[in-house]
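Hey forum,

I'm writing up a methods section and want to include a predicted complex as supplementary material. The small molecule is flavin-adenine dinucleotide. I've pasted the protein sequence and the SMILES. Can someone with a working setup run it? I'll credit the forum in the acknowledgements.
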Amino acid sequence: MPTSKTLHYDVIIVGAGINGCAVAYYLSQAGLNVALVDKTGIASGGSGAAGAFISPKFHKQGPLKELMDVAYDEAMTFYSTVLASQTLLKPLLHMSQNNDEEPVYLEQSAVVEARSACEKLAEGIDFYVLDVQAPIYSKDKWHYEHLQSSHLVLTIGAYPKILPIDYVGLRGIWGHRIDITTSSDVPHIFHHFVSISPTIKEGIVAIGATHDVHYSPFDSDATYDIESGRAFLLDNASKILKLNNINILRDYTGLRSGSNDYMPMLGSLVDANATLALHPHLQHGKAIDPKEFVYYPNLIMINGSGGYGFVLAPYLAKRLKEYLVDGIPLDKMISPSRYFPRWAKRKKD
Ligand SMILES: Cc1cc2nc3c(=O)[nH]c(=O)nc-3n(C[C@H](O)[C@H](O)[C@H](O)COP(=O)(O)OP(=O)(O)OC[C@H]3O[C@@H](n4cnc5c(N)ncnc54)[C@H](O)[C@@H]3O)c2cc1C
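Reply by user p_vandermeer:
Happy to help. Structure tokens for the complex are below, copy them as they are.
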């Protein structure tokens, strides 16, 4: 959509993965005028690689499990209604990695066709291909090139940060999955060493995914070894099911973005320099109320969904809509500012 005229929006969303697309969907449904921006295209990051299984977190009780249980329920409703044509509902058999827990059989779970789901959510929304770097806030608006908005939402996953927010602890976890054909029947979704699942594409079975914290396309010189990834996936799949006459159709690779404490992030971002200038004693470990931090105005980030981005996206996008449109406060527990005090204390002058 090339133009030099300034275009005004209520919200610009940077990053068109499942998080950006779900936010665009919820906000436009609520009547906001939304622009979606991506440096490459819709679902060109981790989202385009995902097997996109919608499964709950099975163990480790605690706040993350509680949040995931709500997110899972909301995701099942969302995908089976809003994205019914992109979603296959199937039973799921989950077995723990070490066989140290009872297997769980869920009557209804789901696998989503990741790319077309993102595209469907972005349908009818103004989309721009732009590599956004250091957007500027002035005169009550966010500005980037010819785009202007009251609010900015950052959903850029594991990509390099576009604002100085070093305190936000994120790490990229490289993943590889494959689509295959096989003469064997795959009646439902299996989760064990890897996942094996039928897909909405008749006759195509998905096997995924690897988890590699050492490889990153942003800072590794070596190219990724696709053959060893395939071997890992097929070897682990064979420990679950005997799959005959396998033909690998396609490889998908990408980065998930995991947070240091495994909780997702939804919330405002602290302006670190402005906050430290106002409260220099934070560097000596003095605690202050997070309300006293200086935040980037009208800016929200969603990130850190790890291997559960498709499960969490409807939940996080809906909470963001409720915050912007209905004035419901965001959950402080998942605010990205939770990392700031510790980072400030450790920061060298
Ligand atoms: C192999 C694999 C399998 C997975 N399987 C599952 C699964 O079964 N279930 C599940 O729930 N999750 C799964 N995940 C995780 C899930 O894919 C991620 O959590 C999710 O995709 C994160 O979405 P996102 O929108 O935050 O980020 P991304 O999808 O990475 O999107 C970020 C977007 O931002 C854009 N961008 C970055 N920087 C800029 C910039 N400066 N300017 C403009 N645009 C920018 C990128 O081009 C990209 O399109 C899997 C991931 C992988 C890699």
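Some notes you might quote in the supplement: The CA atoms of residues 1 and 211 lie 37 Å apart. Residues 63-81 form the longest helix (19 residues).
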